[in-house]
Amino acid sequence: MKLIGSLTSPYVRKARIVLAEKHVGYTFELDVPWNDDSQVPDYNPLGKVPVLIMDDGTSVFDSRVIVEYLDSVNPVSRLIPDGNRRRIAVKRWEALADGICDAAAAIFLERKRSKTQQSGQWISRQQKKVEGGLEAAARELGDRKWCDGNAYSLADIALGCALGYLAFRFPEIKWRENFPNLAELSDRLEKRPAFMETAPQD
User: Fold this and answer.
1) Per its record, what are the GO molecular function terms (predicted)?
2) Which of 15, 42, 75, 103 would disulfide-bridge 129, Cβ 3.0–4.6 Å?
3) What is the pLDDT of residues 42-86, one digit of tens each?
4) At what angle do helices 154-169 and 10-21 cross, to 10 degrees?
5) Helix axis angle, 84-112 relative to 120-141, nearest 10°?
């Protein structure tokens, strides 16, 4: 298998971490979809990363679809529980974490536009989503070690990638000070080999 993606995307990082945690062999092809010579649209008509290329050439895109497929490939270290209630809880965490990333990425892209083209109202709206997402994550995590209780799961991977992206792109957001339990979870996750090997970089 081959994974196509960038070194900054939290969605690509999520897929890479799942591949590592599941011990699935693959090759990583670096491709930034914003570049004029990007080949990403050849594999994903939406022009987004990550894209997983199967051995038969079939492309799988959207990080949520990719990680769900990968969790079924190898029974070792299941990251999405089998029970419907716990499964939905973990996928809900993933949706929350991805939503934080969506809003943060929207801010990042808006700020790349010229000052005269930027919309302060749009940025403010996305900032509220990030703040709301962090507040919800901290409240629901509480004093638990992991998002799903006592077991490490996709929920932790997704939230860890979101927090890592904020630390990377938005150091001005003081989520560590405001939400100590999220900081503790992030510190615990960033010590795992899969997280250390996929730290975002320009």
Assistant:
1) transferase activity
2) 103
3) 999 999 999 999 999 999 999 999 999 999 998 888 999 988 999
4) 140
5) 150
Q: Is 133 exposed, middle or buried (0-12, 13-18, 19+ CB in 10 A)?
A: buried
137 and 54 assigned to the same domain: no
Q: Any idea what DSSP says for residue 8? A: S
Out of 22, 46, 73, a domain closes at 73
**Residue found by looking up tokens 């062999």 in the block:** 25
CA distance 4 to 162: 19
Condensed to tens digits (0 to 9), the pLDDT of residues 14-50 reads 999 999 999 999 999 999 999 999 999 999 999 999 9
Locate 108 and state its tokens.
């990042």
- Identify the three-state secondary structure at position 74: coil
d(CA 86, CA 136): 18
Is there a single domain that holds both residue 91 and residue 152?
Answer: yes
Structural domain of 103: 84-192
Q: Are 5 and 35 in contact (CB under 8 A)?
A: no
Q: How far apart are CA 151 and CA 156, in angstroms?
A: 9
pLDDT digits (tens, 9 = 90+) for 175-202: 999 999 999 999 999 999 999 999 999 8
Q: Are residues 131 and 174 in the same domain?
A: yes
Query: Last residue of a domain, which of 73, 92, 120?
Result: 73
Identify whether 150 is part of a domain.
yes
pTM exceeds cut of 0.90: yes
CATH code, domain carrying 45: 3.40.30.10
